């Protein structure tokens, strides 16, 4: 059986004459034949009224037959009672009620369809050279017997009638005969498999509509549920308790819940300190405090708070960049400052990124609470994101519950994060699938940099993204593959978060500086496999990947 396109049930073809012809073509022609039913074509042609312009011309062939051993044939079907009037030089059809009406010349129709299709194939497959095989057209009258004679533009060799349907061979023979008569070359060759593949692609090309990544991201963003009912239930369940720790995976909304809890305290008239580890996150939190609550909520990152209180009490804050200063001495400075500033206290504390707070810090944090260790304290943490110490050391307090559902990242990114920490991270049911992780490995820093540059240009120039939607993260302030990239589309690479948010630069910052923040697209520049004794640990890898909301691309000089 020959192949019918479109692959419909023949019995569903509404016009009986075309249904009968389709059945005969499929059943009686060889299996390597392809038959197009109701084949539409559209092409530009010269405007007969204004030759300097072109206009679109359209048409439709009832059947287009590609028979590899014989050639290409356009077959026009005219069912019912059809006749040609020599006096008027017109074709007519008579309907069921005996009413006669004028129709188009079927041979002209077939000819026009053939030449339009021929032009498409010549242009797209044979570089406008003559087709090397036979091609032509026929008109089929499946309800009539041809008795001889001819109308202008017709010939008995290109007429198929009811008698040709009586046996299998007569029908296929009539098509083969027509193609033999249409042969224009001394030695026509068959249509090769490659010819047939290219012809089918030319006359029925794949129609692709590719959404810009910017639009895909915008559509996906609507699907991402930032604060789920599940999260609200966890928070509401323990919101009135005094000292609560809530654990959550990356992307589970911990930071938004911390912000929500701080607002809950402030709306009760309680002065509240919202504290985190990361300076950039503190700036973001500060920007998202409602104006009417800014007098009651103070936002700071731990070391920024220490520096501020040292300034208020006239105490020197001189970092020496040693681990001892940032971990132990900073906590001592804070305790000393609080001893001098007895009024610097809060009714409630909320801590985000609590897994990065050191044991020494928790002791002094209670001094910030007006009621000391009995005062309200809410902490939000993810033990998988511990970056600055061997393990998280949350103080003993009531466990407020777990947030196991990711509602920030697409399913593909969440899946990658789960693979890194060997856990199955749940996604919200409405979360979009998203793009698969793009991984580029090249030991050459120069070539890897070129690949990153090409990716950035595509995102900005072709995919319609804003610079503020893209973050380049690496363990180091100056990733080696990016050394030769000064600017993309006149946008410099910078770690200035404020300029980045205003689309004035492309952000290139460290993973640890960006912790707690997010971007639609994250480009991670990795030195290779994570190592516990480096600035790129498994936790760093997890944090970096989880910052990407929609698209994650990893460029590495060795296998991860």
From TrEMBL:
Alphabetically list the UniProt keywords: ATP-binding, Helicase, Hydrolase, Nucleotide-binding
One GO cellular component term: cytosol
Q: What is the species of this protein? A: Saccharophagus degradans
Gene3D superfamilies in the record: P-loop containing nucleotide triphosphate hydrolases
The superkingdom listed in its UniProt entry is Bacteria
Indicate the segments forming the NERD domain, all copies: 16-124
One Pfam family assigned to this protein is NERD
GO MF annotations in UniProt:
3'-5' DNA helicase activity; ATP binding; DNA binding
User: Which GO BP terms apply?
Assistant: recombinational repair
InterPro entries assigned to the protein according to its UniProt record, in alphabetical order = DNA_helicase_UvrD/REP, NERD, P-loop_NTPase
Which protein is depicted? DNA 3'-5' helicase II
């Amino acid at each position: 059986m020959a192949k019918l396109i479109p692959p419909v049930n023949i019995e569903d073809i509404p016009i009986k004459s075309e249904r009968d012809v389709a059945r005969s073509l499929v059943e009686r022609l060889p299996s390597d034949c392809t038959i197009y039913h109701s084949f539409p074509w559209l092409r530009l042609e010269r405007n007969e009224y204004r030759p300097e312009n072109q206009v679109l011309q359209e048409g439709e062939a009832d059947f287009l037959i590609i028979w590899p051993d014989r050639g290409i044939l356009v077959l026009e079907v005219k069912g019912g009672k059809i006749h040609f009037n020599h006096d008027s030089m017109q074709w007519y059809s008579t309907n069921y009620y005996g009413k006669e009406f004028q129709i188009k010349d079927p041979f002209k129709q077939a000819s026009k369809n053939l030449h339009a299709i021929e032009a498409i194939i010549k242009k797209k497959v044979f570089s406008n050279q003559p087709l090397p095989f036979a091609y032509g057209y026929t008109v089929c009258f499946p309800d009539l017997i041809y008795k001889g004679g001819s109308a202008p533009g017709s010939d008995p060799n290109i007429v198929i009638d009811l008698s040709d349907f009586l046996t299998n061979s007569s029908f296929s023979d009539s098509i083969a005969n027509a193609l033999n008569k249409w042969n224009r070359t001394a030695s026509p060759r068959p249509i090769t498999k490659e010819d047939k593949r290219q012809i089918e692609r030319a006359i029925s090309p794949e129609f692709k509509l590719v959404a810009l990544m910017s639009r895909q991201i915008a559509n996906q963003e609507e699907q991402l549920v930032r604060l789920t009912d599940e999260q609200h239930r966890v928070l509401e369940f323990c919101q009135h308790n005094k000292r609560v720790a809530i654990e959550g995976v990356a992307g589970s909304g911990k930071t938004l819940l911390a912000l929500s809890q701080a607002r809950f305290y402030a709306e009760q008239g309680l002065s509240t300190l919202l504290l985190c580890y990361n300076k950039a996150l503190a700036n973001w939190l500060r920007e998202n405090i409602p104006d009417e609550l800014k007098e009651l909520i103070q936002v700071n990152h731990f070391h920024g708070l220490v520096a501020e209180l040292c300034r208020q009490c006239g105490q020197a804050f001189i970092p020496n960049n040693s681990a001892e200063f940032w971990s132990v001495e900073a906590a001592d400075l804070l305790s000393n400052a609080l001893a001098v500033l007895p009024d610097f206290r809060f009714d409630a504390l909320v801590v985000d990124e609590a897994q990065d707070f050191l044991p020494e810090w928790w002791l002094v944090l209670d001094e910030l609470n007006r009621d000391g260790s009995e005062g309200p304290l809410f902490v939000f943490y993810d033990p998988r994101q511990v970056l600055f110490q061997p393990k998280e050391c949350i103080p003993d307090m009531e466990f407020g519950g777990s947030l196991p559902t990711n509602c920030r990242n697409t399913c593909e990114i969440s899946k990658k994060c789960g693979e890194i920490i060997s856990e199955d991270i749940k996604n919200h049911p409405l979360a979009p699938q998203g793009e698969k992780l793009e991984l580029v490995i090249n030991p050459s820093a120069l070539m890897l940099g070129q690949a990153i540059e090409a990716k950035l240009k595509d995102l900005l120039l072709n995919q319609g993204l804003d610079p503020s939607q893209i973050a380049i993260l690496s363990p180091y302030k100056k990733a080696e593959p990016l050394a030769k990239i000064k600017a993309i589309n006149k946008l410099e690479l910078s770690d200035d978060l404020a300029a980045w948010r205003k689309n004035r630069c492309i952000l290139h910052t460290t993973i640890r500086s960006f912790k707690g923040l997010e971007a639609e697209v994250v480009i991670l520049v990795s030195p290779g496999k994570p190592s516990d004794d480096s600035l790129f640990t498994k936790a760093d890898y997890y944090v970096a990947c989880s910052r990407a909301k929609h698209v994650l691309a990893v460029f590495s000089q060795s296998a991860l």
